[in-house]
Write a structure and sequence with these properties.
Number of helices: 7
Number of strands: 9
Radius of gyration: 19 Å
Low-confidence stretches: 1-24
Structural class: alpha/beta
Shape: globular
Mean pLDDT: 89
Largest sheet: 7 strands, parallel
Distance between the termini: 30 Å
Strand content: 15-25%
Helix content: 25-40%
Strand order of the largest sheet: 5-4-3-6-7-8-9
Length: about 260
């Protein structure tokens, strides 16, 4: 439901009212791809797009028994090509891509192995790039589309709690987003990112209560963020209401 402001003739806000009918959803019958949907944010954003009338195609390396889901590893180039092609063969178009898949080992920097480094880079950064590359080619041809990628506060402050490899990939996603935005702008395609801070998800299960409390004390709003506070901005950035926003990274961190 949308709240509409009521202004007096001199432009002063006098109150608000609920319209008889909600504004029409931007995503009715749109085709939306979401990665990493076994996690809290991926599941939440998929459900939200469905509520808005979209047809959602999901993937995660962890299997799920549901309609529209395909198990796969986004760091696998062959899988990425096959998945995007299968969606296009079935629907003829892709309107929105949400690059949410990511892994976050908390290995201390001196202990990161080459194998772990490559795994994190592969899922978080390489997967985001090659999925975006495959999808934007189609979007440019249609002169329409939106790509939203998950960056992170860790990509701005470094890998202390989250891990150096995770933080490096999230910084790279900001750069990839700007490049996608510049490439797509002349063709009606927008690309943006969101950068959550510490969000109350299952990803924090490996973090102690003492560490969570330390994080909380650094956040001016005094609490962790919620999944809803991440997925609603994603929906906005993918919508026509954000039609003049591209190349941006929206911080969602309680002013950390």
């Amino acid at each position: 439901m949308y709240v509409v402001p009521y202004l007096s003739n001199d432009g002063v806000l006098r109150g608000s009212y609920l319209p008889d009918k909600a504004m029409p959803a931007d995503f009715q019958d749109k085709i939306v791809l979401v990665t990493g949907t076994a996690g809290d944010i991926g599941r939440g954003v998929s459900d939200l797009f469905r509520e808005e009338g979209a047809r959602v195609f999901e993937t995660d390396v962890r299997s799920q028994d549901q309609s529209g889901f395909t198990a796969g590893d986004v760091s696998d180039h062959a899988f990425v090509r096959q998945w995007v092609s299968s969606v296009l063969d079935e629907t003829g178009r892709i309107d929105v891509l949400i690059n949410n898949a990511g892994i976050c080992p908390r290995t201390p920097m001196p202990e990161v192995t080459p194998e772990e480094w490559d795994e994190v880079i592969g899922v978080n950064m390489t997967g985001t790039f090659f999925l975006s590359q495959a999808v934007i080619k189609h979007m440019v041809g249609r002169q329409s589309g939106a790509i939203i990628s998950l960056a992170s506060l860790a990509g701005q402050v470094g890998g202390i709690a989250a891990g150096v490899h995770y933080s490096a990939t999230k910084a790279a996603i900001v750069c990839i987003t700007k490049t996608l935005a510049r490439f797509g702008a002349a063709h009606g395609v927008r690309a943006n990112a969101v950068a959550p801070g510490v969000i109350d998800t299952a990803m924090n299960e490996a973090v102690t209560d003492e560490q969570i409390e330390q994080f909380r004390k650094t956040i001016p709003l005094g609490r962790l963020g919620t999944v809803a506070e991440v997925i609603e901005p994603i929906l906005f950035l993918a919508s026509d209401r954000a039609s003049y926003i591209t190349g941006a990274t929206l911080d969602i961190n309680g002013n950390h």
